[in-house]
Amino acid sequence: MRRTPVWIFLACLCTPSFALYPGEIYREDLRIQPLRDGRVSTTFSFVTVLEGAVPRNPMALGQVDESQHYALFPLTLGQILREHAITELHLTLNAGRWNYDNWGHPHEAGVGTGAELWAWMGASEITTVDERWSGLRNALSGLFCASLGSLDSRRTLSPTVAFPLSGSTPTFAPHELRHASLPSENVCTENLTPFLKLLPCKSHAGLASLLNPQKVFDADWHGMGIHVIWKEDTGVELKLTLQAVFNPVRTSTGKRRDWNLQLLFDRSIERSCPVASSSSITVILPEEKDYQIIPEYPAHVDGLAIYDLSSSSNFTIPSNIAMSWPSEHSFQYPLPPLTPVTPISVKRTIHGTTQTRGILSVSVTNNSPQEISAGYLEMVPALLTLWMHTLKVEINSQIRSDLLSGLKYHPPSPQSNDRLSPLDVASCPHNSTKDHARNFHRGQQSFSEIHRTSTRCDERLGSTRGRVFPAPSIVSRYPSEL
Amino acid sequence: MNTPPAFSVPVCLRLLLAVLPLPGQDLLKHDHQLSSPLTSYLRLNEGLWLLDNNINPYIGGAFHHSPLLLSLFSTIVPPLPIIWAVSDGMGAWALLRIWRARQGLSSQNGTRSNVENLIVSVYLLNPYLLLPSLALSTSTFENTFTLLALMFASEGKVSSALLAIAFAVHLTPSSIFLLLPILMVLVSSPVSHLASPHPFHGSLRRIPFLFGEFTLYWLVLVGAACIITGGNWSWVRASWGASLTLPDLTPNPSLWWYFFTEMFDHFRPFFLMVFSVHLVIYILPICVKFQHDPLYATFLLVGVLGIFKAYLTLADPGLFLSMISIFPEVHGYLRHPIITTLLHLHAALLLPLQHVLWVSEGRGNANFYYAASLVMGMAGGAGLVDACWAGMRIAVGDAKVWAEEKVDGEKGKVVWWEVVQQ
């Protein structure tokens, strides 16, 4: 029913297209960046903005909501957001480990492995935040075919410092954060299909037609994200992102890092999405100038090659965008020692020989020439008992307890079984590596706890596979360069 | 008070062990046989750290010790090994005084006999008691308070005995099972009457008053604990509730944890109730049967606790084994002491072995370890049953046989049997 106006538009392709209903804007963008280790990072972002919309007041949850009529905004997601009165929502489903040292910062932060869901909701007496959080999890797990239902209260925390509200804060109710993550959740094609259904043009037209599940899920790193933010001046913004890091050196026959859209995605863009107000492919050009890019880009902005695909432009859709390094015979991986791309590198390791005891060690390296002060947040499953009194901070085997300040440790509460241990790093002197080490003790799980974590794409029993820790986050205090 | 010369030697040895840096001490602290989640030194330090950082130590499930220990080690004295050595010494001294009271000897007199040396050595050098003490497990303090309560009760000092047992109950709630026989010792005498059973001699009417006094001391301690934690009652659930609700399923030598790892949550409350009530049913029959010798009844109940406690360490059967030294009159009547010894040896060797095989090396599994703790339970049970038997058998007495030959040529023997009570 909703597709009828879209088909009418597709029939008259030459007319300049704009959103049928004033108040909804859709734009899509693909960013491609060749990385220094021969890989190619691609970031799709599909943004739908409901202009002037306001999140539902949780105090009005008992009354009948106004009817929702959307042309571009997905109705299923809109209904979930209104039903649970969600102000801000972030869901990411990722697979792989983002290599910050070689790949730099991702275009969309939120690359922790597995499923991570966090939401800001207003408090209300009609239904509590926790009830709505549970309803949200179940609804989203049904919508995305992901087992988000197991992100229950035993894994939910409220780390407000590390996950603040990205948009504006509505004034109608005090807001609370709920955050949960399931690092062992696998992402597969069953998650991509409902993701594409949220787009106005689905996978028939526009940039989403490039999304070939065979290729995307074969990438070295892939992840999708759903972000709903409310900005007071623009309205409710839904951003769907899909990032994938491909490895043409591995997949190509000649071990070359040349890439083109056909090689990466095995698909081409037939037609552009008519309802998109802007649709473009941006290639971030590498610094060395010995590459070649076809077709010659018309717009050159500062190291970026922008190909505008929207139907309003006069530019014809390129059948293939290719970048090659003709002077290279085969790709030579840059030899170590390599300076990491990001100012901070973090390594987390477990030392120990037994299954019950060990040392959890976090090693933070400051690659920049000046001191950095950052916060470190770690959420540890309750299975592990951390002996916080054994916490040691060392630089080059010298104990420096003054470098750690503002240590906040939240032991597991009876409702939530996870521990929250934000550590505030006071400062890390330049070009040095700092180690935190804490002893931990793995406890004994009861039978019902072992079988509660279920995965969909993997049939093996969780208990034999070992435990996965949720990814820690580093929050920088002075985000000037980071 | 004159102590036998050999008392100072084991005590000095024990103090020396506390002060010297031993190579394997870190291993001992992590050993699950020597300390349980309720008594572990690691958790004590964690609780002290949490207190220093203004975090309630009781909400995380890591800390189960009593607030009194928390305040002792955070304000008065840090948790040094020398405190455990002193506590061991006090326990040995208390055991000696119990022996003297039982034998009717004046506690001031120093009859330096070999038996007293043996008693002191059996307490201080018993590996079941020495190793948990070196591992800085707070079960040493629990044992010391139990022995102090018995000492004061044997010497007739009412208030000190009730205060000591109130401390013991505060540290571990399962010591409440020892309350009734201690009250009985207070109102009667500790002298051995095993061989001549008689109805209870003491005045039963005093017992409710003594119980009231105990309750008063116990409430004072509870109030002190509440003041220490600032009016927060979460410590009750974490420290006493742990024995009842079994929140932590770390493997230990007790018989409880294995059941609860395999059990659905639905059945947990029922089985927790069954296991706790099981301990209660031993009190009255033992106290009624051994009403002529309540000290022996206490000894038997210590044995019961040493098998069926929720979070068992080796120190609990260790107390039972060391206390057997103050009842030499039953030693002759034990039927299978060697089997008990061998079972204990078997269990003591198997428990750490299976634990390492399971958790460190991953070659065994929980069943191996639980089988070893079942052997430990059997060892304790064999000792307890034997002690019960001997305590009752001694009352029957020995048979003395006379045989006389008739002198007048008839080839016959006349046999008289006479039962002599000692």
UniProtKB/TrEMBL annotation, chain A:
<feature type="region of interest" description="Disordered">
    <location>
        <begin position="410"/>
        <end position="464"/>
    </location>
</feature>
<dbReference type="GO" id="GO:0042765">
    <property type="term" value="C:GPI-anchor transamidase complex"/>
</dbReference>
<protein>
    <submittedName>
        <fullName>GPI transamidase component PIG-T</fullName>
    </submittedName>
</protein>
<feature type="compositionally biased region" description="Basic and acidic residues">
    <location>
        <begin position="449"/>
        <end position="462"/>
    </location>
</feature>
<keyword id="KW-0732">Signal</keyword>
<dbReference type="Pfam" id="PF04113">
    <property type="entry name" value="Gpi16"/>
</dbReference>
<dbReference type="InterPro" id="IPR007245">
    <property type="entry name" value="PIG-T"/>
</dbReference>
<dbReference type="GO" id="GO:0016255">
    <property type="term" value="P:attachment of GPI anchor to protein"/>
</dbReference>
<feature type="signal peptide">
    <location>
        <begin position="1"/>
        <end position="19"/>
    </location>
</feature>
Automatic annotation (TrEMBL), chain B:
<feature type="transmembrane region" description="Helical">
    <location>
        <begin position="207"/>
        <end position="230"/>
    </location>
</feature>
<feature type="transmembrane region" description="Helical">
    <location>
        <begin position="76"/>
        <end position="96"/>
    </location>
</feature>
<dbReference type="GO" id="GO:0006506">
    <property type="term" value="P:GPI anchor biosynthetic process"/>
</dbReference>
<feature type="transmembrane region" description="Helical">
    <location>
        <begin position="368"/>
        <end position="392"/>
    </location>
</feature>
<dbReference type="GO" id="GO:0042765">
    <property type="term" value="C:GPI-anchor transamidase complex"/>
</dbReference>
<protein>
    <submittedName>
        <fullName>GPI transamidase subunit PIG-U</fullName>
    </submittedName>
</protein>
<feature type="signal peptide">
    <location>
        <begin position="1"/>
        <end position="18"/>
    </location>
</feature>
<feature type="transmembrane region" description="Helical">
    <location>
        <begin position="161"/>
        <end position="186"/>
    </location>
</feature>
<keyword id="KW-0812">Transmembrane</keyword>
<comment type="pathway">
    <text>Glycolipid biosynthesis; glycosylphosphatidylinositol-anchor biosynthesis.</text>
</comment>
<feature type="transmembrane region" description="Helical">
    <location>
        <begin position="270"/>
        <end position="288"/>
    </location>
</feature>
<dbReference type="InterPro" id="IPR009600">
    <property type="entry name" value="PIG-U"/>
</dbReference>
<dbReference type="GO" id="GO:0016255">
    <property type="term" value="P:attachment of GPI anchor to protein"/>
</dbReference>
<comment type="similarity">
    <text>Belongs to the PIGU family.</text>
</comment>
<feature type="transmembrane region" description="Helical">
    <location>
        <begin position="295"/>
        <end position="314"/>
    </location>
</feature>
<feature type="transmembrane region" description="Helical">
    <location>
        <begin position="334"/>
        <end position="356"/>
    </location>
</feature>
<dbReference type="Pfam" id="PF06728">
    <property type="entry name" value="PIG-U"/>
</dbReference>
<keyword id="KW-0472">Membrane</keyword>
<feature type="transmembrane region" description="Helical">
    <location>
        <begin position="117"/>
        <end position="141"/>
    </location>
</feature>
<keyword id="KW-1133">Transmembrane helix</keyword>
<keyword id="KW-0732">Signal</keyword>
<keyword id="KW-0337">GPI-anchor biosynthesis</keyword>
